[in-house]
Amino acid sequence: MRVMDNIDHFNLRSFDLNLMVAFDAMMQELSVTKSAEKLRIGQSAMSHNLSTLRVLLQDDLFVRVGQKMQPTAKARALAGPVRTALSQAQNALQATDRFDPATAERVFRLGVTGEMEMILLPVLLRHLQIHAPGTKLLSRTITTDSVDPMINNGEIDLAIGCKSPLQSGYFGEVLFKSEVACCFNPHLLDLGRPLSREDYLASRHAVLSQTGNVAGCVGDALQGLGINLNVVMAAPDFMPLLAAARNAPIIATVPCRIATQYAPLFGLSFCHMPIEVGFPPVTMNWAVWTDKDVGLVWLRDQIRTVIASIAPEDHLLAAE
């Protein structure tokens, strides 16, 4: 990213970093007392910072509404850019020019979808234990609604899963295309393989859903084709779907990589979904300001290596 060369250093002298930190704390807590505690300063010092900010920005910034402080329109507009600037400053101060995986001690924070929790994390952990034994993984579950705020707020270093189109301020790449498989208990459902379209539509289904919609992402995708699926169960994770298919005469539709690794553990047969549906690819995304972090550059390379080692979708064809 190109650094701006028209910075007005003279005017910025009166707006030091501490004021930006105070503003960010106030936006998070919406309380002078709690903000002071968070910054480990006195309440009077926090009040002085707020007064200085109001003078410099010529705005009240925070006003009392009932028992709470609420940010003004200008404060809300400033919140995102200020947090981004603070994150960039923090990364710049913490950054090093080298990363030695053999000796590094670092916590990598990954935001992952349910598929990546089951497919990527176990293999990635084994890989890191061999090549970077001093590192740790902190996994956070992401959804399409939560992923952008979690990246912006610095809660996660990388997001791995299905993400909405990239916005300004993000980098990203496609890791692999998404394909799904149908899993069922052959002792409870007498279905041919490959599964016919007629049998698929005549069956009852269990699907993934992270919203209040029982149809889930599979049902939604099929509704776009004018097909209504008979969904009898929706769950936010894949394991309940496979467990349900083991115990009931239903079809659980899950990603192919989930099916190849986990369906046999539940005694399930699996095959390709007989209706072609275009699902979003699995992507890896990160914030622009972490792009040059040498540790994260190394980690992204390791994730690419691990993903390449995981059985591809074509492996499913051999099992049919």
UniProtKB/TrEMBL annotation:
What superkingdom does the record give? Bacteria
Which keywords belong to this entry? DNA-binding, Transcription, Transcription regulation
Q: What protein am I looking at?
A: LysR family transcriptional regulator
Pinpoint the HTH lysR-type domain residues.
15-72
Organism phylogeny: Bacteria, Pseudomonadati, Pseudomonadota, Alphaproteobacteria, Rhodospirillales
Which organism encodes this protein? Answer: Thalassospira lucentensis
Fetch the PROSITE patterns from UniProt.
Answer: HTH_LYSR (PS50931)
Q: Note the InterPro entries from the entry.
A: LysR-type_TF (IPR050389), LysR_HTH_N (IPR000847), LysR_subst-bd (IPR005119), WH-like_DNA-bd_sf (IPR036388), WH_DNA-bd_sf (IPR036390)
Q: Name one GO molecular function term.
A: DNA-binding transcription factor activity
The similarity comment for this entry is:
Belongs to the LysR transcriptional regulatory family.
